[in-house]
Design brief:
Elements (H helix, E strand, L loop, with lengths): L1 H7 L9 H40 L21 H71 L29 H4 L13 E3 L13 H13 L12 E7 L9 H9 L11 E5 L19 E4 L2 E2 L9 E2 L25 E6 L1 E2 L3 H4 L19 H14 L5 E3 L14 E2 L4 H9 L1 E7 L6 E3 L1 H13 L2 E5 L18 E3 L7 H6 L3 H19 L2 H15 L13 E2 L3 E5 L4 H4 L24 H6 L36 E5 L8 H5 L10 E7 L3 H9 L7 E8 L10 E4 L4 E5 L1
Parallel strand pairs: 1-2, 2-3, 3-4, 4-6, 7-9, 7-11, 11-13, 13-14, 16-20, 18-19, 19-21
Antiparallel strand pairs: 5-12, 8-10, 15-21, 17-18
Subcellular location: Endoplasmic reticulum membrane
Membrane topology: Single-pass type II membrane protein
Family: Belongs to the glycosyltransferase 47 family.
Length: about 725
């Protein structure tokens, strides 16, 4: 406290030096003030000068604090960020420049390749043009060789004189008429198309005597037939309808003969003419027997042995459904195989054999030796014994309850009305048909009527009498649909009928139904069958079936179908590669005129049976080949361009007899959508498949929301 007081008061202490302390304190404050002034004034000026000097020394592009474009000065706090951005952009620019150089070098290389490809394309075009020229020259040479080796078609040798010659001799007997001596082939060349001229019956006096229903049905059929022509000068065959005639106005045989000989194109002997005598009833008159028909062919349901010329005349079926279609809904089903009665027969014999020999003019003169034996009494006794034995249910009646139908002599007349007879036949497994006792009556309208009714309702015909000539017997194998037994074996008939198995019964019934539907049921079928028989005999190819526009059913395709695992596992069977190119049309099938000559008795029917008289023309001009059945309820049939085959044979030959070939699958279905879709999916990946045609056999269209599988080939849905 003492020292502090002394200093504060300016007194003396510590030697008495107060003024030194005051001076020293003033100097320090002055120096400190001056130093602070210098630092605060000159240091910013020096820093500013230094920084300005550095900006001036650098490039204009690297200045940081110098003036910028647009007179904008950079702030000091962004210097470091801008520097980093500048370095990053510089690196990216360097990388882009390197990439640009690389791309330029690649573009240059690609340009060189493009130029090389252009040169190769030009060379390929030149080679292709040369190949086209070579192919064109080869095709031209091939056509020339084919033209040189192709046989020239010309008219067949004319066997008859060019002009009508009344002195030209007829065969010694009408029974000697055959195609080689009574038919003019020169009017029917292979390329003619089988033109047929039909006379108008109303232009002749006998036309007013024809049955109106038969005449109307015949005229309606003629108008729609593909072979009928109105140009008589080019016709191959001339047809005239002469029956069935009505009894009250029937002309005399001499008058009808004169009218036939006065036909415009009769040419003295009636060659290439066909006289048709259709029967609608069981008592059709055989008035043509006493008429000279010359070289004209005859088609009717009643023939005597002295009148019938095998291979020349035609036995036709009766025209039961003249102006109406048969009611197929009333036809009984084919099963069960066995029915209530083992066999049945109803009929009444009106006249004996001896009386029949006096009915026909000049018939007795042709009988050699004794009259043929009449087995009818033995037949009656045997059949009644079978009925009385009651081993099987049979029904035989030899006396009609009502008035029997009119019939020819020695012929068993029909009993009752047609509906009553059909009801009995529907209950019968077999239907007995007893031929007339006159063995020289090879066929009668009554027997043909019984045969027609039996086939219609599925009763298997049993014909007693091997001498009978059934309708269209030269082209139909009747042993596959009926039993033809000699009358002396009447005692063995019961044993024979009981020994037939159910499988054979069903096969015969199916074949009988096919024959009835195809050749007997309607007037169109009868007339077309008659023309087909003549055309087949003279070996002229059938006309193609008229194309009918199919009703296409719209459908939607769904997801792609997968390959069926069942088809993938084929063992050692190689189905071939899947086609990578789009479907292509099959080559034209060249078989034409040889088809009739080589395949006359080829059976196109699914069941074993006769030659199908109508032309076979599937969707493509091809022949059917075998195929595997896919799925229950939906079958298909492939169609290829040649002989084809199945499995490994098909693959080895590339589809048949041509280098490239595909086939079409035709499937028939009926409201089984799930089965159909599964079957279609299994076709996915099938080699050589061109397309699939689905025939929708139902009036009810498929569901609108149904998705059809995409199998890689077109699926065409058609409605029947």
């Amino acid at each position: 406290m003492t020292g502090y007081t002394m200093l504060r008061n300016g007194g003396v202490g510590n030697g008495g030096q107060p003024w030194v302390l005051r001076w020293s304190s003033r100097i320090r404050l002055t120096w400190l003030s001056f130093t602070l002034f210098v630092i605060l004034v000159f240091f910013p000026l020096i820093a500013h000068y230094y920084l300005t000097t550095i900006d001036d020394a650098d490039d204009a592009g690297k200045r940081i604090f110098g003036p910028r474009t647009g007179n904008e000065l950079c702030e000091v706090k962004h210097v470091q960020d801008l520097c980093r951005i500048r370095e990053s952009v510089s690196e990216e620019l360097l990388q882009l420049e390197a990439k640009r150089q690389e791309l330029n070098s690649e573009i240059a290389k690609l340009n060189l390749k493009i130029e090389a490809c252009k040169k190769s394309i030009e060379n390929a075009k030149q080679d292709l043009l040369q190949l086209k020229n070579v192919i064109s020259q080869t095709e031209h040479s091939y056509k020339e060789l084919m033209a040189q080796n192709q046989p020239k078609l010309s008219l067949p040798i004319r066997l008859l004189p060019d002009k009508d010659d009344a002195t030209f001799p007829l065969p010694k007997s009408n029974r000697n008429c055959r195609l080689h001596n009574c038919f003019d082939y020169s009017r029917c060349p292979l390329t003619s198309g089988f033109p047929v001229y039909v006379y108008n019956s109303d232009d002749f006096p006998f036309g007013s005597s024809l049955d109106p229903l038969i005449k109307q049905a015949f005229e309606a059929t003629v108008r729609t037939n593909v072979y009928v022509t109105e140009n008589a000068n080019i016709a191959c065959v001339y047809i005239i309808l002469v029956g069935e005639m009505q009894e009250p106005v029937m002309p005399k045989p001499t008058e009808l003969e004169q009218q036939l000989h006065s036909l415009p194109y009769w040419r003295t002997d009636g060659h290439n003419h066909l006289i048709i005598n259709l029967s609608r009833k069981s008592e059709t008159q055989n008035f043509i027997y006493n008429i000279s028909t010359g070289r004209a062919m005859i088609a009717q349901s009643t023939f005597y042995d002295a009148q019938y010329r095998p291979g020349f005349d035609i036995v036709v079926s009766p025209l039961v459904h003249a102006m109406s279609e048969p009611n197929f809904l009333e036809i009984p089903p084919q099963v069960p195989v066995k029915r209530k009665y083992l066999f049945s027969f109803q009929g009444e014999k009106i006249e004996s054999l001896r009386s029949s020999l006096q009915e026909v003019r000049s018939f007795e003169e042709e009988i050699e030796g004794n009259a043929p034996a009449d087995y009818d009494d033995r037949i009656i006794t045997t059949l009644k014994a079978v009925q009385d034995s009651k081993l099987d249910f049979v029904l035989v009646e030899f006396t009609c309850k009502n008035q029997p139908k009119a019939s020819l002599p020695t012929e068993w007349a029909l009993c009752g009305e047609r509906d009553d007879r059909l009801e009995l036949l529907k209950l019968s497994t077999f239907a007995l048909i007893i031929t007339p006792g006159d063995t020289r009556l090879v066929i009668s309208a009554g027997c043909a009527m019984r045969l027609f009714e039996a086939l219609e309702v599925g009763a298997i015909p049993v014909v007693l009498g091997e001498q009978v000539q059934l309708p269209y017997n030269d082209v139909i194998r009747w042993n596959e649909a009926a039993l033809i037994i000699p009358k002396p074996r009447i005692t063995e008939v019961h044993f024979l009928l009981r020994s037939i198995s159910d499988n054979d019964l069903l096969a015969m019934r199916r074949q009988g139904r096919f024959l009835w539907e195809t050749y007997f049921s309607t007037s169109d079928n009868v007339f077309s069958t008659v023309l087909a028989i003549i055309r087949t005999r003279i070996q002229i190819p059938a006309a193609p079936i008229r194309e009918e526009p199919a009703v296409e059913i719209p459908h939607r395709s769904g997801k792609a179908a997968g390959t069926d695992p069942n088809m993938a596992d084929n063992g050692d069977l190689d189905l071939g590669p899947v086609e990578t190119e789009p479907p292509y049309a099959s080559p034209k099938y060249l078989r034409n005129f040889t088809l009739t000559a080589m395949d006359i008795y080829r059976n196109w029917n699914s069941a074993p049976g006769p030659f199908h008289l109508f032309p076979y023309t599937p969707f493509d001009p091809v022949l059917p080949s075998e195929a595997k059945f896919l799925g229950s309820g939906t079958g298909f049939r492939p169609i290829g361009g040649g002989a084809g085959g199945s499995g490994k044979e098909f693959q080895a030959a590339l589809g048949g007899n041509v280098p490239r070939e595909q086939f079409t699958v035709v499937m028939l279905t009926y409201e089984r959508e799930e089965v159909l879709m599964n079957s279609l999916e299994r076709l996915n990946g099938l080699p050589y498949l061109n397309k699939v045609v689905v025939v929708w056999n139902s009036p009810k269209l498929p569901s609108e929301d149904l998705l059809w599988p995409d199998i890689g080939v077109p699926i065409m849905v058609r409605q029947t």
